[in-house]
């Protein structure tokens, strides 16, 4: 291990392939923020009902509740906000998961987080008859948290502790088991199946401000916790032994990252359902642009995740008018080719 790498780790960074990436990282973050703004404008302007740009500007400068076009734009605002929040949460959680597991194929489902949230939501619907988002979000976070704790406890068994490989294996096994239990509950209750199958697709359509309020505090706390782990993830990227040698508490670092991921994924899954590919693809794009320093990868992944999900939602409205393709389907359609391209450029996305 070279001296420069060790010094970079002590300073909270990871040695980059060149100074160009470090110097351009703020520019990429600003460009991603501009992309988010563009996606928001498109989300308000495009849909089953075509609106002119003049109408969009007028709705913001001189809103008239009696105007049908203005009412349509107003109804798209909470949908856009939820798309931003969920996309940012999944992108941020995906980057953190890939960093803590040192696995480029990891996503928020690696620790069984999404499967635990889904099972908890189904159980709340089936056993307790819950249907409101205010109550379901807490069940989703609880299920995600329990699943993460179980995976970490199983992976910690043995002398080596919770290594990345053991975390991945335990997470995959638990996810399969929880998915089987979820399906078992669904086949016994048609009512629960009807309520769950629309949520399972993954969508931000039909959401209101009442759906935003319950998840904002959890997403805010999760984002703050996860963004604060950039230096810790940089240390973990060097390997557990070297991280410990530099004075880092590896188990505590992983626990803090897991806490942030649980809050982000639990709240995002509760409000929008399990949406795939955002947490998997976005971090690869971020690392390809700014290198391996998680102090930049994390915020960039959050911004790119928000832009991807809102953009996918807009594309879903336009592809088969006047009907809509749900955002969870469109993220897979848009994300799969990008991910295949990134896999071919494995040097650019390696951890």
Automatic annotation (TrEMBL):
Membrane topology listed for this record: Multi-pass membrane protein
Q: Which Pfam families match?
A: FecCD
Instruction: Give the SUPFAM superfamilies listed for this entry.
Output: ABC transporter involved in vitamin B12 uptake, BtuC (SSF81345)
**Source organism superkingdom:** Bacteria
Could you list this entry's UniProt keywords, alphabetically sorted.
Answer: Cell membrane, Membrane, Transmembrane, Transmembrane helix, Transport
**TM segments?**
28-48, 80-97, 109-129, 135-155, 167-187, 255-282, 294-319, 325-343
Ubl conjugation among keywords:
no
- InterPro entries named in the record: ABC_BtuC-like (IPR037294), ABC_transptr_permease_BtuC (IPR000522)
Report the locations given in the UniProt record. Cell membrane
According to its UniProt record, which protein family does this protein belong to?
Belongs to the binding-protein-dependent transport system permease family. FecCD subfamily.
- Protein name from the UniProt record: Iron ABC transporter permease
Q: Which organism is it from?
A: Nocardioides jiangsuensis
């Amino acid at each position: 291990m070279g001296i420069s790498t060790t010094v970079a780790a002590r300073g909270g960074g990871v040695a980059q392939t060149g100074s160009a990436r470090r110097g351009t990282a703020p520019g990429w973050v600003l460009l991603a923020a501009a992309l988010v703004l563009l996606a928001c404008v498109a989300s308000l302007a495009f849909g089953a009902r075509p609106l002119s740009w003049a109408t969009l500007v007028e709705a913001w400068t001189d809103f008239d509740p009696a105007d049908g076009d203005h009412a349509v734009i107003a109804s798209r605002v909470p949908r856009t906000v939820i798309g931003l929040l969920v996309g940012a949460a999944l992108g941020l959680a995906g980057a953190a998961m890939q960093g803590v597991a040192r696995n480029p194929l990891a996503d928020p489902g690696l620790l069984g987080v999404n499967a635990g949230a889904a099972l908890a939501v189904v159980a709340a619907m089936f056993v307790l008859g819950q249907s409101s988002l205010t109550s379901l979000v807490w069940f989703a976070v609880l299920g995600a948290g329990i699943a993460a704790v179980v995976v970490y406890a199983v992976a910690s068994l043995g002398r080596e502790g919770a290594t990345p490989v053991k975390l991945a294996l335990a997470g995959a096994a638990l996810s399969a088991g929880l998915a089987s239990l979820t399906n078992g509950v669904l086949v016994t209750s048609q009512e629960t199946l009807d309520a769950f199958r629309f949520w399972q697709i993954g969508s931000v359509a039909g959401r209101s401000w009442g759906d935003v309020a319950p998840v904002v505090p959890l997403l805010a706390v999760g984002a703050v916790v996860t963004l604060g782990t950039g230096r810790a993830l940089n240390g973990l990227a060097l390997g557990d032994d070297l991280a410990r040698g530099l004075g880092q508490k590896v188990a505590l670092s992983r626990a803090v990252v897991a806490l942030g991921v649980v809050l982000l994924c639990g709240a995002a899954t509760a409000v929008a359902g399990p949406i795939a590919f955002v947490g998997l693809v976005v971090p690869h794009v971020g690392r390809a642009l700014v290198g391996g320093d998680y102090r930049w990868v994390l915020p960039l992944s959050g911004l790119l995740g928000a832009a991807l999900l809102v953009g996918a939602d807009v594309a879903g409205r336009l592809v088969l008018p006047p009907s809509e393709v749900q955002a969870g389907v469109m993220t897979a359609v848009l994300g799969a080719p990008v991910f295949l391209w990134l896999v071919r450029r494995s040097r650019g996305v390696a951890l």
